[in-house]
Write a structure and sequence with these properties.
The complex is a heterodimer. By secondary structure, chain A is mainly alpha-helical. A two-stranded antiparallel sheet of chain A has the order 1-2. Chain B has a two-stranded antiparallel ribbon. In chain B, strands 3-4 form a two-stranded antiparallel sheet. The mean pLDDT of chain B is about 85. Classes of the chains: A mainly alpha, B mainly alpha. Chains A and B meet through helix 7, helix 12, helix 14, helix 17 and helix 18 of A and strand 1, helix 5, helix 6 and helix 26 of B.
Chain lengths: ~500, ~625
């Protein structure tokens, strides 16, 4: 039943909790505890990452079925079970989460100095929740993890964040929580109709067409906030600006993907009719997101805020691709999510490098950095180019596939998505110019040190991934091709049923 | 060999870029030069093998994207068109690398410069050897990146940074159309591979999209993409500013290679473009207009490099006009010869700038021809070729384009002919204006500069000499193959012409007065320049004073930059601020924050309600009961 021969997914999900437990048990004076916490967290996350590589190696790419499944009865009377498994759509997100966590822990190595133990515990709990969310195959379980992510993230922003951290943390929590409550209602409604919350079982169930719009909107409320889609995006810039660097990396790298994943996992297969009906609405919001937030990004004075707004624009491309209902669009959306996870995460790390040295994110406080930090300038340039989707970097295949997919639906949507190409180049190059180019006007910058060995270790895997994803995307798309094809087939079939029902 | 021609420059770029500090600047420079020489040997051999041995081939490297019914690979396609480009690019790039060793000898970070230069060459080679649209786009954007880096090479200058950004963003505007063109191509043909597209073109001639002929739409979208890269009217504004980069960059990128990518695209897509007559007419009109427009500006510019930059813009217009009338062969031939003489002119300009202690303003030059005789001679050769004087390379290709325009026997062809003849006159005029102001007359530079005027070192002169040989002989030597009697077997199907249109033949049967006219206008342009600038040096200022409006209009480049600034840049900036401050902060955030405020306010009011008076509680309960009961009754 399980390709790994042991409950791999449970291990991936709960091993970080075990690490957190160990950290909790450590006693002693503060420096010892801090160092212990750091090393334990790093090793735990590295072990989890290595274990997750089993997924990369032995995942069967030829099938759309769920793999590495684990199934236990949990609340059998209510039809709620403990059911884990991955398919092509979720497997790479698991890897993304397990890969980014050790990078985040390394990135916080010296910048977090207060309450190190609690910080590391929060990160490990966060990893559990993230992985659990992507492998859950039961709606109740999914919901628990989906909500559970909020708690450590709320703490990370609220405790280790910047000056306006409390405002940002509450905004983040309330926005996302409000959406999630509606999703809970939708889950209950589905359970009420079918008597189960098992996701594969639910996929066989045809939700009555009359119900679909309401359930769709309930899911939409939750996922749209997470993505985030315009106009419910304003929590994101605030959360990013106040979050510590590693928090931003996880937020952009993994948390934003929960919305897009939700759309593809639930909205599309469970509610085909409503998804098709609402597609134009989603396109409109997405195109607005691309153009609007790109323009807003152009006006930003704060590096993190700028990248946060660019994230909203990039996620707009994802939602366009998701609702095109064709292979190129959907795979492009998935690819864009993965690449954005790597590239936006890396860009936040780039900001973090400067922040760690100068303790400001204001663009005007920099200038001419390329002269002082040449290695850093090179890395930053690479991720800048990846962010503006230069072919050969990770950003390109996703954007290209989405535009091609969108063209088949409507050339105007494709044009809207393509506008992001120009505006994206404008705000990213403008940022790069102000930070890295120009004369050194602030003399105190001259003393800055270039990337340290630790920072090189952090960036190296991201650089490799960015180029790899750009030059040889087939090694990633091959994971989800079968699943996406099956999803589309199912969607087509469901639409045909509905069409026939309409005729009779 | 075929793979090596493309990937050696990348190897050089990586070594020089990443390990430049480790191995030292000298070693890094010569490493890139060494790899460029290897690439050039491979590239030129490949050109002769494919072009004259008639052995086209495709080297497939590995699958790039495989999504649904969309598949394409990283592959190197060597037909005559791409082999010709590979040979030309590697050859010229090698000499520019060599020249740069001398030119950049006083620079602080030459390893970075050479890495960029080699990276650029690699991207250009990927572009020309692509066997699918997406790989072409990879090279297309790659040269955009490399030129961004090279224009902004001296990044401490504000103007260089701005020029680099402008180049990238203006190019991106074109790229959006290219991207949409690819999307439409895939929509129509279900493939982005050239082989599959070209084979299927005849079946899709009558396809329509949004009520428009699909092939025409694709043609127009690709042409708009090409406009960005090749600096055609409307999207040309980045090219003159790009002169902020070091001079070898201008020679390589903004003359010989990158800007020709658009022309290459037209020739590459000829099997499709031939079925899009309206799109081709647009190409001709825009190309011819650009040729004339850029020439008018070239006549009044005072920066030695900008004059040449506008002449590049103008010559690119010729190439597009030729492609538009269906004479891709002549268009590519002009591209080929132009690469040599324009690189020569730019490198010559670099030699002058080098001699004049980095002065670029021709008003501050003059009287130096005896001090730098070789450079002076090079300038003459380059200008003679540019003006299209017989025997020199430009004569053969330009003449073919003019004859082709007449032979097209169409309205747009005639329009193009008139524009291009006028442009040819202006070209000759401003070329000799440049020569005379730069080299002749009384020295206008200060004494200190004049003392230091010296001929460039051998490492810079050798490339000049080699390119001058190209500027003299390539036209004469290659004309029979590119556009003459051997053209069919030479191109070997790499360029497609509709069987019904016998453009090559028609071109050869163009009336004799065309060639005579071309020679006459070129010579008279030269004569006029001599008469004015040698005979009556005071006259230009008087003319400018007599028509100040026209003069300022030309000097300010027809006010395109100001127009775009007013039309796009400023409004977008204001819009960006507005959307952020009003849209996000006030409206979108205003609502939740307002909601929060309301909640808090309600909390306070609720507190006030708790007065402790039983009567008011009872009153409230009754009211509530009434409301609920009535709701219940109404709802039933």
């Amino acid at each position: 039943m399980n390709a790994a021969g042991f409950p791999l997914l449970s291990l991936l999900t709960f091993l970080p909790l075990a690490g957190a437990l160990i950290i909790m048990l450590v006693r002693g004076d503060e420096a010892v505890v801090a160092s212990n916490a750091r090393w334990t967290a790093l090793w735990t996350s590295l072990i989890v990452f290595v274990l997750s590589l089993i997924l990369w190696i032995s995942f069967d790419k030829s099938t759309a079925a769920f793999q590495f499944e684990e199934k236990l009865d949990w609340l059998p009377d209510f039809g709620v079970g403990y059911h884990l498994g991955v398919d092509g759509i979720s497997v790479l997100f698991v890897l993304l989460a397990t890969a980014l966590t050790p990078i985040c822990i390394l990135a916080s190595w010296v910048s977090v100095t207060s309450r190190v133990r609690e910080y590391m515990i929060a990160f490990l709990v966060l990893e559990t929740m993230m992985v659990g969310m992507f492998v859950a195959l039961d709606m109740m379980l999914f919901y628990i993890f989906f909500e559970g992510v909020l708690i450590p993230m709320f703490l990370i922003i609220g405790i280790w964040g910047g000056p306006r951290r409390v405002y940002a943390a509450y905004k983040f929590f309330l926005y996302t929580f409000l959406g999630s409550v509606l999703m809970l209602l939708a889950i209950i409604a589905l359970w009420y109709a079918t008597g189960t919350t098992d996701i594969p079982a639910l996929m066989q169930f045809q939700v009555p067409v009359a119900w679909q719009p309401i359930i769709f909107l309930a899911f939409f409320a939750s996922f749209a906030v997470k993505v985030p889609m315009w106009p419910v995006h304003t929590w994101l810039p605030d959360a990013h600006v106040e979050a510590p660097t590693a928090g931003s990396v996880i937020l952009a790298g993994v948390l934003l993907k929960m919305g897009g994943y939700g759309f593809i996992r639930f909205s599309l297969p469970l509610l085909p009719q409503a998804s098709a009906d609402f597609a134009p609405f989603i396109f409109a919001l997405s195109v607005i997101a691309v153009v609007y937030t790109s323009l807003v990004a152009l006006a930003q004075q704060d590096m993190k805020k700028l990248i946060a707004y660019s994230s909203v624009a990039h996620m707009g491309i994802v939602t366009i691709g998701t609702f095109t209902f064709n292979q190129q669009g959907l795979e492009g959306a998935l690819y864009q999510m993965l690449s954005h996870g790597v590239v936006a995460g890396a860009l936040f790390l780039c900001v973090g490098v400067l922040y760690d040295r100068e303790h400001t994110r204001e663009i005007a406080r920099y200038g001419g950095v390329a002269k002082i930090l040449p290695a850093y300038a090179l890395v930053f340039m690479l991720f800048t180019m990846a962010s503006i989707a230069l072919p050969g970097t990770a950003g390109f295949p996703g954007e290209f596939l989405v535009i091609v997919g969108a063209w088949a639906v409507s050339p105007w949507v494709a044009l809207g998505a393509a506008m992001g190409m120009i505006l994206g180049a404008a705000y990213m190059l403008y940022l790069y110019k102000r930070v890295a180019f120009g004369k050194i006007t602030h003399e105190h910058l001259r003393g800055l040190a270039d990337l340290s060995a630790r920072e090189i270790v952090i960036f190296a895997p991201l650089v490799v991934l960015t180029l790899w994803m750009g030059i040889y995307p087939s090694s990633f798309t091959s994971f989800f091709s079968a699943s996406v094809a099956a999803l589309l087939q199912q969607h087509e079939a469901a639409m045909n049923v509905a069409r026939l029902a309409g005729i009779n | 060999m075929f793979v090596g021609a493309v990937f050696f420059p990348l190897l050089g770029a990586i070594i020089s870029g990443l390990f430049g500090r480790l191995i030292g600047d000298k070693a890094a420079q010569w490493t890139t030069v060494f790899f460029m020489v290897l690439a050039a040997v491979c590239g030129v051999t490949a050109f002769f093998e494919v072009g004259f041995g008639s052995a086209p081939r495709t080297e497939v490297l590995f699958t790039w994207v495989d999504v649904g019914d969309m598949q394409f690979s990283w592959a190197l396609r060597y037909d005559t068109l791409s082999a010709m480009m590979v040979g030309m690019v590697t050859f010229i790039s090698t000499f520019i690398h060599l020249y740069s060793v001398g030119y950049m000898s006083h620079d602080e970070t030459p390893s970075r410069f050479f890495a960029y230069l080699s990276l650029f060459t690699f991207m250009m080679l990927m572009l020309v050897t692509a066997d699918n649209l997406v790989q072409l786009f990879f090279g297309w954007e790659g040269v955009g990146l490399a030129s961004y880096l090279l224009i902004g090479y001296w990044y401490e200058r504000e103007s260089a940074c701005n020029a680099a950004m402008k180049a990238f963003i203006v190019n991106r505007v074109g790229d959006v159309f290219f991207m949409l063109g690819m999307a439409l191509t895939f929509y129509v043909f279900s493939s982005v591979e050239f082989g599959a597209i070209f084979a299927a073109v005849p079946q899709h001639v009558n396809d329509r999209f949004l009520g428009l002929p699909a092939l025409e739409l694709i043609g127009v979208l690709f042409f708009l993409g090409a406009c960005g890269k090749s600096a055609q009217l409307g999207l040309h504004t980045w090219l003159p500013d790009a002169m902020e980069g070091p001079t070898p960059v201008s020679a390589l990128i903004h003359a010989a290679t990158m800007v020709t990518a658009g022309v290459f695209l037209m020739a590459r897509m000829s099997p499709l473009m031939e079925y899009a007559p309206v799109a081709l007419s647009i190409v001709t009109v825009v190309g011819a207009s650009t040729a004339l427009f850029a020439a008018t500006i070239g006549c009044v510019q005072n920066d030695i490099k900008r004059v040449i930059a506008y002449s590049t813009c103008s010559q690119l217009g010729y190439m597009f006009a030729a492609a538009g009338v269906g004479l891709y062969q002549a268009s590519v031939f002009h591209l080929f010869t132009h690469a040599f003489f324009k690189a020569l002119l730019f490198l010559g300009a670099g030699s002058v700038i080098h001699a004049m202690s980095d002065e670029q303003d021709i008003r501050k030059m003059g009287g130096i021809w005896k001090k730098i005789p070789i450079t002076y001679a090079m300038f003459w050769i380059g200008s003679l070729a540019l003006a299209g004087i017989p025997i020199f390379a430009g004569y053969y290709s330009k003449d073919a384009i003019l004859e082709g325009a007449i032979a097209a026997h169409s309205g747009v062809g005639t329009y193009a002919f008139v524009c291009m003849v006028l442009a040819a006159f202006l070209t000759a005029f401003y070329s000799w204006r440049l020569i005379i102001l730069t080299f002749h007359g009384a020295p206008r530079a200060d004494h200190h500069t004049m003392e230091h005027v010296h001929e460039s070192p051998a490492v810079m002169l050798i490339p000049l000499l080699v390119l001058s040989l190209g500027a003299i002989f390539t036209g004469f030597t290659f004309a029979p193959y590119f556009i003459g009697e051997h053209q069919a077997e030479f191109w070997n199907g790499a360029i497609f012409n509709l069987p019904a249109k016998h453009m090559i033949e028609a071109m050869h049967h163009a009336p004799h007065w065309v060639a005579t006219l071309a020679k006459t206008v070129a010579l008279s342009g030269i004569v006029l320049a001599f008469a004015i600038y040698m005979g009556a040096p005071k006259l230009p200022a008087k003319v400018a004073g007599a028509v100040p409006g026209l003069y300022r209009f030309l000097l300010n480049k027809w006010y395109f930059d100001e127009l775009y600034n007013w039309l796009f840049v400023q409004p977008l900036r204001r819009l960006a601020r507005g959307l952020w401050q009003t849209g996000d902060v006030r409206i979108i955030d205003g609502m939740p924050n307002g909601a929060a405020a309301i909640t808090a306010g309600m909390g306070r009011s609720a507190m006030r309600l708790q007065t402790g008076r039983v009567a008011s509680y009872a009153f409230a309960m009754i009211i509530g009961l009434v409301v609920f009961v009535s709701l219940f009754l109404l709802g039933r």
